[in-house]
Automatic annotation (TrEMBL), chains A, B:
This is Histidinol dehydrogenase. The active site is at 321 (proton acceptor), 322 (proton acceptor). Pfam families: Histidinol_dh (PF00815). The lineage of its organism: Bacteria, Bacillati, Bacillota, Bacilli, Bacillales. It comes from the Bacteria. NAD(+) binds at residues 123, 185, 208. HAMAP family: HisD. Keywords: Amino-acid biosynthesis, Histidine biosynthesis, Metal-binding, NAD, Oxidoreductase, Zinc.
Length: 428, 428
């Protein structure tokens, strides 16, 4: 891991995202989208054969496959899913929003009506790994929002099967509409609909570069959660932080992906040195050692800060997906954190706790986008409508201000729609 | 205006948006963005000369220009701006969100911290028209959210000036950072920064196709409000609706743009006929008669519904930007409205009231996107961070569930970060 001062770190800061620089992927993605728009299910079957190496008879996961999956997973796993589900429900229940109305003098009523989206799609990645936790993290907030139809898509493996863990999690969450489609073709199907897959109004869930770019392209025709980039952990540690804990947490992020960014910011030279040593020592013992070592050496950073204030300012500048505060008085410093997807407080709140079971969402803004984005939440699955009611006299009282502004903007038909109501005698 | 049954309307429904079909505009937009990324202010000056026909000495509006603008607008206009400002403030104050925390047994603390974005950019269109109301509608929610730095960009006219109405509205709203840049180059400058214009974290405000596509491209590097398409009004009217009011309101939408969509859905044949006649009769008298007539004949629709339920189902399917309920018992039917940007209730609540002065935002989801998007609001200018704190024993109690899930997902470094804490003796 590279050792830097806060100033050096800031000077070497990379631009992590540039959404205008994906022309090669985009070209392939646009072809796939056009194919699905034109040929629907046929395109999905053909593209799944091409990319996943399996010719499917049915896109939908059958009831039998669900039963088989449920039988194949352990009781221990089911119990873990139930614990996670309960904690996710408890936390996210605090995010539900109510419609509100206010009355103003003269019989005026204004308000904000909150309505769930009708139908949403959840993308669950496939491939070598399996993501049952992602099923819960995406489905439960949508259900709490009141979304009635939830569709999951996930790529099949070469046997035409879907991870039993994913199916068991879907069943536990109460979703039984699962399609064996992945990649940009799944995003296109969810965005525009096919004979089998109904068009949805929002697409959420992580995926590879093709999934991310497809989501970017269909954004505007449907809503999307975010365009996920490389993910990161940033640990702010003082001399009280146990170096072997810090190292283990950096490694838990590093094992995701060679592009993952494990960053330690510390005010303690001793902690910096001890973490550096412990990280490489621990890496030797981990299964995903190659990925971890690549991530550590390429993207790992240890930033030496002169003061805690400098450490926190650096963290805010990074706007990390995961921020761990392993310092003496973490709660006292919470107010100074302005940019972070999730904030883990103290020595016993590692990222893995939030990834699986504490309750808050693990779908978090990556690559610095926490400066302007939020964790996935119930708020992602509702939309608001303003409500406006003015009686005749109330409209008359404000008419002059409206027509003055409309005339200043050169919109005289707007003015006329006010004038015509002033001239009328009747009231309502 | 074309007269249709609800069934015919549904069958002829057009796909209003397809975000994958703008390759010509995109190519020009990407060149502009690359130019601004590379050459900063120089690119802005050069592109402003090219597109707006004026060579600027200074990108920023000077204090003198502000003073000049203030002198040139009427007292009446200033009063109208103050009325609008007060009503927008009153309504949007209801949207502010607080951080919250919950305590769970075992010393667990979970929460959601709400933080304003640091810096946002507001795009105000220029050209022939002037949009002082748009300044208020975009700036005030950001201020209520707690955003400290707000930057406005707007294209200059060929004299190198900016609309005095826009400047007076900006001054009244308390924003004095205004740059004379428009088009895709303004979006690029806000997204990536130049020597003069600081990078922002969210870009809001309406614009032409180049602005909309530039916003789509930079989305992900910064947040954006929405990608605006053709806008619409949908009036649901029964036999109690005054046809001349209905016609005037359809025309107020039609005058915006030839692509604007004025739609009446009515259960009354008499109202349908009377509105059809009144619309063309009124159009003759309006200044923007040509635009209005084009919009009416191309995109105008009168849908005859058999029942109010069918009328409302049709409106929900359209998911209109503006929905007017001019029916006998509008409040009683409010719960059945699921998709609309703003809902105007009764015969004296025309769209123009909401456009300027009632208080709710006039930046609304267009082209059917109200099915998954909300009006611009205070919530657009904050982001949330999850907060997670577990003490040692609380983590120990949930350890097994976490490691079971991590192992199912093949992420053993996640498991290790939990195991290492179980083995430790100390507590914190």
């Amino acid at each position: 891991m590279k050792l830097l001062t806060a100033e050096q770190f800031f000077q070497q800061k990379q631009n992590l995202t540039d959404q205008t620089n994906y022309r090669n992927v985009d070209s392939a993605v646009l072809d796939i989208i056009a194919d699905v728009q034109k040929s629907g299910d046929n395109a999905l079957v053909k593209l799944t054969e091409k990319f996943d190496g399996v010719l499917l008879d049915e896109l939908a996961v059958s009831e039998e496959e669900f039963l088989e999956a449920e039988k194949s997973v352990s009781e221990e796993f089911k119990q873990a899913i139930r614990t996670a589900k309960e904690n996710i429900l408890t936390f996210h229940a605090n995010q539900t929003e109510q419609s509100w109305f206010i009355n103003q003098p003269g019989g005026i009523t204004l308000g904000q009506k909150v309505t769930p989206m009708e139908r949403v799609g959840v993308y669950i990645p496939g491939g070598k790994a399996s993501y049952p936790s992602t099923v819960l993290m995406n489905v439960i907030p949508a259900q709490l929002a009141g979304v009635k139809e939830i569709t999951i898509t996930t790529p099949p493996n070469s046997d035409g099967k879907v991870s039993p863990y994913v199916l068991a999690a879907a069943k536990e969450a109460g979703v039984d509409t699962v399609y064996k489609v992945g990649g940009a073709q799944a995003v296109a199907a969810l965005a525009y609909g096919t004979e089998t897959i109904k068009k949805v109004f929002k697409i959420v869930g992580p995926g590879n570069a093709y999934v991310a770019r497809a989501k970017k392209w269909v954004f505007g025709d449907v809503a999307i959660d975010m365009i996920a980039g490389p993910s990161e952990i940033c640990i702010v540690a003082d001399e009280t932080a146990p170096p072997n804990f810090v190292a283990a947490d950096l490694l838990s992020q590093a094992e995701h992906d060679e592009d993952a960014r494990p960053i330690l910011i510390t005010t303690s030279n001793e902690v910096a040195e001890a973490v550096q040593a412990a990280a490489y020592e621990q890496a030797e013992q981990r299964e995903r050692k190659d990925i971890i070592q690549k991530s550590l050496s390429t993207n790992g950073r240890i930033v030496l800060a002169d003061t805690l204030a400098e450490a926190i300012a650096t963290a805010n500048d990074i706007a990390p997906e995961h921020l761990q505060l392993m310092i003496n008085e973490p709660f006292e410093n919470l107010a100074t954190i302005t940019n972070a997807g999730a904030i883990f407080i103290g020595n016993y709140s590692p990222e893995a706790l939030g990834d699986y079971a504490a309750g808050p969402n693990h779908t978090l803004p990556t690559s610095g986008t926490a400066a302007f984005s939020s964790p996935l939440g119930v708020y992602d699955f509702v939309k608001k409508s303003s409500v406006i009611h003015y009686p005749h006299q109330a409209l008359a009282s404000i008419s002059k201000d409206i027509t003055t502004l409309a005339d200043a903007e050169g919109l005289s038909a707007h003015s006329y729609s006010i004038h015509i109501r002033k001239d009328e005698e009747d009231d309502a």
